[in-house]
Design brief:
By secondary structure, this protein is of the alpha+beta class. The chain contains 6 helices and 9 strands, in the order ββαβαββαββαβααβ. Helix 3 crosses helix 4.
């Protein structure tokens, strides 16, 4: 449906972000950015997501000034506490238990950087996600599936973990890892995409 007006690079190894861009019919390269992803003390989830996305995009763009680089970072947070990827099954279960019956926030920071065109657009999109409540054996069975282990917040809304979610308010694609509406709108506004 869309064609990039200059070389397009996704500064992420995320298969979910790759799928979204592919569905739009875009040709793009994947160049993951190797950066320090440590949260700073007192850094809000929104600021952390924005900083990570910006650092990823600018790091890759510095080596590819002719390209349009998309960086993104998705953060799951409850009461401003960031829930990263669980390090083990016990941590995954603890995260899922904390999220039960609560509304948490999923924020994706995204940065679109095209050095030769003097473009550096940075924004965040936040979606409210409300979990239902399930007994611990159900949560343990989900952890045993293995799906939570490489997901921020220990769940994948696009996979088995969809059963955990009672409702969402905001962008669904944002929860998966890329706010497609906001990204496409920004690319079109800067004439980095054309139709066809």
């Amino acid at each position: 449906m869309f064609t990039a007006c200059c070389p397009l690079i996704l500064a992420s190894a995320s298969p979910r972000r790759r799928t979204y861009l592919s569905r739009l019919g875009l040709d793009f390269s994947i160049v993951p950015a190797a950066i320090d992803e440590t949260c700073m003390p007192d850094e809000s989830p929104q600021d952390f997501a924005r900083r990570m996305a910006t650092t990823k995009a600018k790091t890759v763009a510095a080596a590819h000034p002719e390209a349009c680089v998309i960086g993104a970072d998705t953060v799951v947070a409850l009461d401003d506490r960031i829930f990263g990827k669980p390090e083990n099954r016990k941590q995954a279960l603890a995260m899922l238990t904390a999220l039960q019956g609560r509304t948490h926030q999923v924020t994706t920071g995204f940065a679109i950087v095209a050095v030769n065109r003097n473009i550096a657009e940075i924004d965040t999109v936040t979606t409210q996600v409300t979990f239902g409540t399930f007994a611990e054996p159900v949560l343990r069975a989900y952890v045993d599936s293995g799906e939570p282990m490489d997901k921020a917040g220990a769940y994948g809304i696009q996979g088995i973990g969809s059963f955990l979610v009672r409702s969402i308010s905001g962008s669904c694609s944002n929860v998966v890892g890329l706010p497609v509406h906001a990204v496409v709108r920004t690319l079109l506004e800067h004439a980095l995409l054309r139709i066809g």
